[in-house]
Amino acid sequence: MPNTTTPELPAPPTAPAPTRRKRLWQHLYFWVLVGIGLGIVVGITLPEVGAQLRWLATLFINLVKVVIAPTIFATVVVGIAGLGNLAKVGGLALRTVVYFNLTTVVALGLGLLTINLLQPGKGLGYDLNSFDGSAADDTIANANAAAGSGIQDFILGLVPTSFMSAFVDGQLLQVLLLAILVGVALTMLGQRGRRAVAALDTVAKTMFGVIKLVMWVAPVGAFGGIAFTIGEHGSKILGSLAAFMGAFWLTCLVFILLFLGPICRLAGFKIFQYLRYIKDELLIVLGTSSSETVLPRMMVKMEAAGTPKHVVGLTIPTGYSFNLDGTAIYMTMGAIFIAQAFDINVPLGTQIALLLFMLVSSNGAAGVSGAGLVTLAASIAAFDHIIPMVGLALIVGIDRFMSEGRALTNLTGNGIGTLVIARWTGELDRERLAYVLANPTSVDTEALLREDLARDTEAPRDTEAPETGVPVTTPSEATDREPATVR
Q1: Are 371 and 139 in contact (CB under 8 A)?
Q2: What's the rounded Cα separation, in Å, for the pair 142 and 155?
Q3: CA-CA distance, 311 to 200, in Å (whole number)?
Q4: Which domains does the chain have, with CATH numbers?
Q5: pTM of the shown model
Q6: 379 against 85, higher pLDDT
């Protein structure tokens, strides 16, 4: 079987690759790393200048946030419509929710276990009465505005006041709810919804193109963010909080290798092959500290690896709100670290209650840099009688350093989750996945993004699936011809 399948796979995507292999300086991640390096130099040698460069990172993040909501809306709608009937929608949604909540609970629990074993906050000895928490004032204000007063506010927060307000305010949970409703409605319309689905598919790919353009500003954003972090807070931060940072990064590594690794094995692939396959995306996220910046690239790569378009269209965008494993680890570790720094003992029962509360509050924490800190603050607000919110000032200064770990773990978990859910539904093309992971250079992400955009511009909609009207196209013609890809 492999002998008949493998020769077809590399032809279209790899035909130009051997003769047009990119040099190192032609890769985006190279310039992102250059930006990081220059930011470190400026932050150390010219701290006053570096402290004024935060606006560069903010500019880049805002450019990304502009297109994320419409991208998620369009891709989720197309993904749901691509399933063809409501029974399939419900089955895929149930599997997605179960898997995402399972991994989130494990991530939260692992964070609690590690922070209690290593206790990096012990010995810092901060006095709550004399502690200056002004550095966290903005974060606390944002958290109080978002925290609400309970489960009622969380449920009410899922429903936007108008259709457009969800997009204007950047509320991803509200956008997801609207996308699910629209996707289900279009599925019920059947053939009458074909044009709308096709139009939204074009919108999604247009947003991919916009993000692709915005990504060229990533090196500038990385430069400004790192320069500001080091210039404003100085390297002395790393001295007192290095233990906490090290414990967090270690926990993320353990989660990926010792939890996600065996899951990959059960799904039929190896974790290190997968990490090699998405290495470009990992490097970009490392520089920008935002997993959202590579959303379209991940969708293209998951399709190229044998995951059906409708599965990718639902799981990847949904994972950006419901499968933030790195953020989950950070939240439990950050909360207990603050308590340890003030010599506050948090009972086991309270820690479990904190975990359950964070299981809910972590949903909707966008993959944009800095969102994890606000989500942590909103969770601590509910336990402020035990864990002082002013303690957030301890980790505000190093949040940028922690953000990379969160984003990398979130990205890794979302991609693995997509492949696992596709395997769970029986729709994963395992032969194609094995070939692509063994030959990662066979997938040219930039070329595939261009091919998708070109097909939307030139190709008529007569390639639509008769069942739903969703184009049965994956990032390469080879994948389209592969019968095991979309069943």
Answers
A1: no
A2: 19
A3: 16
A4: 27-481 (1.10.3860.10)
A5: 0.73
A6: 379
